[in-house]
Amino acid sequence: MSMIHVAPEAHLVLDPLTSLLAAEREDIIAYSMDPIMVQLDELDKIADDLVNSLSPDKPLLSSFAGRENTSMQAGFYGNAFYGIVVGLGVAGLLLLVMSALGGI
Asked: What is the three-class DSSP state of 75?
């Protein structure tokens, strides 16, 4: 929020955001919020990235282009692998129990 000195000899300043022309006063201190706004914009990007990390089809801030669906594919293949391993283990255990009881 920087002020533009329109007429320094008349102590007139202009606020570029609101286009307000006012008298410059010595008892009011105005701070520039531009560095803080840059940091807030960066934190906003990081917060959006954190929310996007919860969805498997959204791009992440520091990932390469075209990597939107990798976590969804990895979850599918990982769960399919563990499903097959557990299913074969249960089927093998069922065959052992059935052969021990003389069902086969």
From this structure: helix
Distance (Å, rounded) from C-alpha 104 to C-alpha 98? 6
Query: What DSSP state is assigned to residue 23?
Result: E
Q: Edge to edge, what strands does the sheet with 12-15 contain?
A: 4-7, 12-15, 20-23
Q: Which token pair is 5?
A: 């000195």
Enter the DSSP assignment of 3.
Answer: P
Helices and strands counted in the chain (H then E): 2, 3
β-bridge partners, 24: none
Cα of 11 vs its chain's centroid, Å: 45
For the whole model, what pTM was predicted?
0.47
Question: What is the Cα–Cα distance from 91 to 97, expressed in whole angstroms?
Answer: 10
What span, in angstroms and rounded, lies between the C-alpha atoms of 71 and 46? 19
pLDDT digits (tens, 9 = 90+) for 5-53: 788 788 888 888 888 888 887 777 767 778 889 999 999 999 998 998 8
